[in-house]
Design a protein that fits this description.
Pfam families: Nitrate_red_del. This is Nitrate reductase molybdenum cofactor assembly chaperone. The chain has helices at 45-69, 75-89, 95-109, 112-123, 134-138, 143-157, 171-181, 183-192, 194-207, 211-219, 227-239. The chain has 269 residues and is an all-alpha fold. The protein has one domain (6-239). Helix 1 runs antiparallel to helix 7, helix 2 (75-89) packs antiparallel against helix 3 (95-109) and helix 7 (171-181) runs antiparallel to helix 8.
Length: 269
């Protein structure tokens, strides 16, 4: 992965906590924009807001560490691996923390060439084991170009730029955006692609790869799946992603015959 991960600059780059001794206490009236955030309604007053801030920080660290760990295991990956492991170790005890630490242990004790070969074997052009999330919603169809453009639009609205060498729907890119770009928009993207994440987790687990633990750590940061999501996963597992007998157009282009767009944001147009 060529995307720059903030964890390379420090394990907590994705979300900063208030300075020691100076807790941030938000306004308690209805004009506080945080009042519209469900996370801040989990408790009364500043205590509830503090819990919400800690949860947001934990989620950001999990997303940033997972972004690093799902990158191709090149020289930069192994430089950042100790930082990802340290960040994971500082998380509160949870299944996500355990999953990340177990993968970090595996990656740090596996020869670099062997880990790189395993990565390619697991993710490279393997049906139902794909890190590009629009593949699960739109497969190799012309419609996928629109879905990619929609993901890129979400990034642009947040002032986030992705390297031209990366497709914007790569899970590691989405996770870094959620950690360091726009937490709310990033979480919404992950939730909307949850069926793909769930199928990826299932497929990785059946394959027996330790990468399943990283994807599972990400899934632990999401709300419980809806019944509709579970049904989509079931259909995806049975039928696979959509397919066409044509190649994918560049993701910024429009096809000559209008096709329905895949709504990946859930936001009104």
């Amino acid at each position: 992965m060529s995307t720059t991960n903030g964890i390379g600059d420090g394990p907590n780059e994705g979300a900063r906590e208030p300075a020691a001794g100076h807790p941030a206490i938000p306004s308690q009236d209805d004009r506080n924009p945080d009042a519209r955030n469900p996370d801040t309604r989990s408790g009364a007053g500043w205590l509830g807001a503090g819990r919400a801030a800690r949860r947001a920080h934990t989620r950001a660290v999990i997303h940033q560490a997972s972004s690093v760990l799902l990158g191709y295991p090149d020289e930069v990956f192994f430089e950042r691996l100790p930082l990802a492991a340290r960040a994971a170790a500082e998380l509160p005890r949870s299944q996500a923390r355990t999953d990340l630490l177990e993968f970090c242990e595996h990656a740090s004790t596996t020869p670099e060439l062997a880990l790189a070969e395993h990565y390619v074997e697991v993710f490279d052009l393997r049906r139902r084991r794909e890190l590009h999330m629009t593949y699960y919603t739109d497969g190799d169809t012309r419609r996928r170009g629109h879905a990619l453009a929609e993901v890129k639009r979400v990034y642009a609205e947040a002032g986030w730029r992705v390297s031209a060498r990366e497709l914007p729907d790569h899970l590691a890119v989405m996770l870094e955006f959620a950690a360091r770009g726009d937490a709310e928009a990033g979480q919404e993207l992950l939730v909307n692609f949850r069926p793909g994440l769930d199928l990826l987790s299932r497929s990785l687990g059946e394959h027996g790869t330790p990468y399943a633990r990283v994807v599972d750590a990400v899934r632990h940061t999401l709300p419980a799946p809806r019944r509709a999501d579970e049904e989509r996963v079931r259909r995806l597992a049975q039928e696979g992603p959509p397919a066409e007998d044509v190649g994918m157009e560049p993701y910024g282009a429009r096809p000559r015959v209008p096709l329905p767009l895949t709504d990946i944001t859930g936001r009104p147009r």
